[in-house]
Amino acid sequence: MENRKKVVGIILLIILLLLGILGVRVLTRPDTVYLNETDSTQKILSVTIGGGDASWESCMNEVAAAYMKENSDIKIVIKTTENIENIDYEKGLRIEEAKGDLDGIVEMRNVNLYQANNKLAEIPDSLADKLQEVKKIDGEVYSVPRYYSCYGMIYNKEIFEKYNLKEPKTYSEFLELCEALKEKGIVPLAMGAGDLWHLDNWMKILFSKDVLNENPEWISMCNEGKVHWTDQEVIHFLTDFDELFEKGYVNPEYDVAKDSETIEQLASGQNAMLCSGTWMFSQIEKVSPQFQIGWFFVPSDSETDTINLDGGWEWSITKKCQEEGLYDTAVSFLEFFYRKDVYKTVLQSMNGISSLNEDVEYDMIPVQQQIIKSAKETGKVLDASIGTGETPEGFANKLYSYLLDMSQKKRSIQETTELLEQEWRNIVEE
To answer: 413-429 and 395-407 helices cross at what angle (nearest 10)?
Structure first.
């Protein structure tokens, strides 16, 4: 009996000690935040962005931190969609939606689709009126452009200067440039199709040059059945794409190389050019600070060149956000994002072009100044985004997959056009 009392006493002592330890921990933690612990007075707003771009994620985390510094009663959580190999952003959003996590502010691509499914809240005029080229659906605004990016050809200036090569003025001259580089033992083009979405860069260039430059309404007309993926202009686009591989202008390992790896290929001199966007400048500088960046818009053979100004990535506020009483908070965060002193840091980080009505001055590298000047003064400006707007949901990734198959001689150009037409019609009918 005496031994049993001793055991019980020891157990009680251990319990009291543990309670005491926990109590001290709770009372003496002024600066520590433990898991699953929330401040009931703090509003929590999520902002969902696409995964895979470290620069953009870092930029948005900085914006969130700056906002929270001025608004201590609000917590901003930057969420990224799942960065699964070859997954497109639309599928990432679908995963978020299936989990019930499509809330707060969302970086959108296909605004029409989500608005049609009653997933989005209206953007107030006080915000929309500050921005250029705001799209309306049935007279209302459901998204606003984050900023604009330009697509074109980034090139190694040292290589061009060494061999006295010039920026092409026509598409024929571009092909001649590729041939000249190949003859000198340099692979002209770096491509990272190991990330399937990388092919969207080429879509922006070639699809707009061959299709949208002649008919800007082509996508909406395709939905109406007035034009088709088997038409001659599409064959022209696919032929231009296929020719790059036929003539050996693309890095041999393009089908497994990642988008991020193309930077090293360009900086090291393995490849002379990279089809990409202005956001890539900061990433190149991180890898190779001494790299001399050159740029040209890929020209057409028509009298009017096309400048690809992409505003397809937009901010939307979800209906769920509105239902949870966070609508005013979401509007407040977006107004903060576009505030001049904040917005200029975003533009500088991403080498973006302002979507505000008023000018925003920020430090930029010389090539970026050139691009902005050209975008404002030269040629026809198109938003050539397959996978946004009126494009059927899921079609973009089918297109990129078929382009990859075609480049590997798994299908002919004719077979590819027929498959694309079938895929488009099937999705539209569904």
So the answer is: 170
